[in-house]
Design brief:
single chain; alpha+beta; 5-stranded antiparallel β-sheet; 5-stranded mixed β-sheet; 53% helix; rod-shaped
């Protein structure tokens, strides 16, 4: 079964609400009218009862008969029955009165052969225990017909109101939902080739303005992610093209003619270096893919950051000595983390720092423990990084140096991306600041993050 549209649902809801309200109002009005007629009939019969009692003070005198006839002649739709205390019928003002009448005292309603009566039973003499009984019957058929016509009118009004409200509700809902249709039209036009379209946020209803803003923000994120993914795919192809081309060319040249065993051995060694570099690149990509899917699960073991930094500085000491760069470490702190993963991250940062530090420069590791966080900075002297390039430093395959070193295992552009993945897997974050004298990569861990 086809689902109803939102406009149809709103129209039906409006119609149902109107029908319910109209029906309740009609029922209340009908009940109020009926109660009003009962009250009027009660007042009329009470007044007639007083007059009849006065006329029948001496029920056996001829004068009472004259007064009774005169009293009854004033109300054409009023009838009277007098019965004795033993239940015997003494008098009927009309021959058409029903044989059986209600016996309970007070006011009641009955129907006899299509005629409706309001019946009032009362004793003729209030102070006598065995007084004759007066039964007054008021023909209220016209009242009942009025109430029935009013009930029919109520049902007709309910139906017409519901229909009119459904039509007006459908029009109002369709007009009110016009911004949603515009949003749907824009969304249907979004594709990988047209992620730059945006919803107009001007003149939007307040309920939809926030949704339109969030939708546009989502498109911005999708566009950015798609651009990064496209660039990422192009970078992978760019990085693998040169080593694959080298492997093919070298192998083809080697196989053009018979060669000594040593030449084949040398060719295989050369190919092995290229294959090892490609394998490392693929491993790095798989590592980043695991990080993107939250599959990096670092172990938690107590670490002395000063000791870990000293181990790495000792490892890089020969390289720093050849480059005539001074290494130092300041501060200490403890944390829980994965030793091998953190060493890999710090190694990437130190390797970058040494690569871009000029001779007689300085690379230092600073560890600062605050009340709620732990900061570890790796700083190096040098010409600095332009501010426009800082936001993209941690993008994959991004290089500050525009001269790409294709086919080389060095400076592929994945080191900082892997470092950021490792830091985030530990619940921290990494930022970079740079000026004309110092470039600093700062890692911040929330203290005692688990």
């Amino acid at each position: 079964m086809r689902q109803l549209s939102l406009s149809s649902r709103l129209a039906l809801l409006f119609a149902a609400c109107t029908a319910v309200v109209s029906l309740l109002a009609g029922v209340l009005f009908s009940r109020a009218s009926e109660a009003h007629f009962v009250e009027l009939d009660q007042q009329l019969l009470d007044g007639k009862l007083i007059g009849l009692r006065r006329a029948l003070q001496d029920i056996q005198s001829s004068e009472s008969e004259v007064k009774l006839a005169d009293e009854l002649s004033r109300q054409a739709d009023l009838s009277l029955r007098i019965t004795g205390s033993d239940g015997r019928r003494w008098f009927d003002s009309s021959a058409r009165l029903p044989d059986k009448l209600p016996q309970k005292p007070g006011l009641s309603t009955m129907n006899d052969e299509g005629t409706d009566y309001r019946v009032l039973n009362a004793p003729l003499f209030i102070d006598k225990p065995h007084s004759p009984q007066l039964t007054l019957l008021l023909d209220i058929t016209h009242h009942q017909h009025f109430l029935q016509r009013m009930q029919h009118l109520i049902w007709l009004t309910v139906g017409l109101s519901a229909l009119a409200t459904a039509l007006l509700g459908a029009w109002a809902a369709r007009s009110g939902l016009r911004p949603l249709r515009r949003m749907s039209a824009v969304a249907s036009g979004v594709s990988a080739q047209s992620l730059n379209v945006r919803l107009p946020e001007e003149n939007m209803p307040p309920e939809l303005a926030e949704m339109a803003h969030n939708f546009n923000a989502m498109l911005v994120r999708l566009d950015d992610s798609f651009q990064r993914l496209s660039a990422f795919s192009a970078d992978i192809a760019h990085e693998l093209r040169t080593p694959l081309s080298n492997l093919l060319t070298h192998t083809q040249v080697t196989l053009t003619r018979p060669r000594p065993i040593e030449d084949y051995r040398e060719a295989l060694h050369s190919n092995l270096e290229e294959l090892q570099w490609m394998a490392q690149l693929v491993n790095d990509m798989l590592y980043l893919a695991k990080a993107d899917h939250g599959l990096l699960m670092p172990k938690r073991e107590p670490l002395e950051l000063a000791e870990e930094a000293d181990v790495l500085l000792e490892f890089f000491a020969p390289l720093a000595e050849d480059a005539r760069v001074t290494l130092s470490r300041e501060g200490s702190a403890r944390m829980e983390g994965d030793r091998s993963m953190l060493r890999r991250a710090l190694s990437n940062l130190l390797d970058n720092a040494l690569r871009f530090t000029p001779q007689a420069g300085h690379v230092r590791v600073r560890i600062v423990e605050n009340a709620d966080s732990l900061n570890l900075s790796i700083e190096n002297t040098g010409i600095g990084i332009p501010a426009t390039q800082l936001p993209r430093l941690f993008d994959r395959f991004y290089r500050v140096d525009p001269a790409r070193r294709e086919g080389s295992s060095e400076n592929v552009g994945l080191g900082l991306a892997i470092t950021r993945s490792i830091i985030r897997a530990h619940g921290g974050d990494i930022t970079c600041t740079s000026d004309s004298q110092w470039t600093s990569f700062t890692i911040q861990f929330v203290k005692y993050a688990k």
